[in-house]
Amino acid sequence: MTVNHHVRVYRSEEDLPRENQLAWKIAEVATDSVEVEADVVDMIINRIIDNASVAAASLTRAPINAARAQAFAHPVSTGGKGATVFGAALDEHTSPEWAAWANGVAVRELDYHDTFLAADYSHPGDNIPPILAVAQHVGSDGQALVRGLATGYEIQVDLVKAICLHKHKIDHVAHLGPSAAAGIGTLLGLDAETIYQAVSQALHTTTATRQSRKGEISTWKAHAPAFAGKMAVEAVDRAMRGQTSPSPIYEGEDGVIAWMLDGPDAAYDVPLPAAGEAKRAILDTYTKEHSAEYQAQAWIDLARKLHGERPELGDPANIESIVLHTSHHTHYVIGSGANDPQKYDPTASRETLDHSIPYIFAVALQDGSWHHVDSYAPERAAREDTVALWQKISTLEDAEWTRRYHSLDISEKAFGGRVEITLTDGTKVVDEIAVADAHPLGARPFARENYINKFRVLAEPVLEAAEIERFLELVQRLPELTAAEVAELSIIAKPGLLASAPAPAGLF
């Protein structure tokens, strides 16, 4: 049974016992040693494979090179054995917070791993790098890692279901700091008091504005969740040393809700598992078949379908206009409702194009496919016929698609919309899609074989065949892994690959 925890702002003179605070309720979920169910374990394995896939595809990209160089500039801390970094040899370790940083950037760079959308946005797979890094550092086994990851996903999803951050231009990683801290607390078997302090500190240090995802989007987009993961590791360390944190962090008169979110009169109901209830929230999440913002996934699939049925639609000479009728979020975040001129700029960064549904729909309509590198190449974005088609595409909010986007009924929750294409001869083509093909309710839901295939495709250019097989064999035995085997839960790049990638010098 799920229990809705009512959260509101309290004046300083009002009594709010610690046990009634949201951070404490989160800590109670983290300390509940309920068994992780088999289908949840299977999905955790899928998501570790998914993270490794997109990290492999990112190994030589500039943000990853910089983050990896930063990590290896820091020696292993004295409290454990350290943690691995994607791409590096398994005996090359760094301190866990820096491994969380480097691996978090690698996972997030291509915007190509799992997602959950409700009151706010999230990529719950961002919990994996910090929790895994700590597991390797302290010598946790596979069972402990599974429990920690189940908590991280549970808290992330529960917060995203209830508390909207983006409405107040707060970046969604503000839900990640607390969830990762809670997951680490479960992994380590910490008590509720320690986890409570860590959750509070992790939230306090990870509230930042959404400018990282607005306008000309910078490389910080990939670093933001890695920073939250790093802060979660440091918050746990600090709490374990007996240090306290601002509280009540959510409900306080000068707390996050009162001054960063809905204000002093705000109230939320956060759904949390009751004591003894299994943590199953990961099963509500979904991964990406395409390397693009999740709200673009279904639109890519629809464009791919239209390309096969009506290839002439890719020629701008045939098109008067293309209007995507969609949800509020899609229209205002990645659509023309964002009022970002950069979303129509052929010289925009990859990060910006990834958040431009007019660009994405144009390319997918012309190519009938989507590629994590080729579809963003500067020469692809600058192609004359693409630019001409792109400029004819706009979005409009549709109340029904907005309602379905926010629906708590999984059977009708939708992230797509209806396209109306007006041709130059006056005829119209109308089609719609509710969810991406890879979604659990989509045309081709992702299963283990799809995750493995995604890993093989993305890893083949950068990992040797034997390394691909080693990793896949290891990760699929996750619950039975020894501490020594958990320490090998990483990927090793082909010889010379990382050395060929420029490692920029910095302060460290």
From TrEMBL:
EC class: lyase
Which controlled-vocabulary keywords does the entry list?
Lyase
Q: Which residues form the MmgE/PrpD N-terminal domain?
A: 21-267
Under catalytic activity, the entry for this protein gives:
(2S,3S)-2-methylcitrate = 2-methyl-cis-aconitate + H2O
In the Enzyme Commission scheme, what number(s) does this protein have? 4.2.1.79
Keyword set includes Lyase? yes
Locate the MmgE/PrpD C-terminal domain: which residues? 290-478
Under the GO molecular function aspect, what terms does this record hold? 2-methylcitrate dehydratase activity
Mind telling me which InterPro entries this protein's record contains?
MmgE/PrpD_sf (IPR036148), MmgE/PrpD_sf_1 (IPR042183), MmgE/PrpD_sf_2 (IPR042188), MmgE_PrpD (IPR005656), MmgE_PrpD_C (IPR045337), MmgE_PrpD_N (IPR045336)
Cell division listed as a keyword: no
Q: How does it assemble?
A: Monomer.
Member of which family? Belongs to the PrpD family.
Protein name according to UniProt: 2-methylcitrate dehydratase
Source species: Microbacterium esteraromaticum
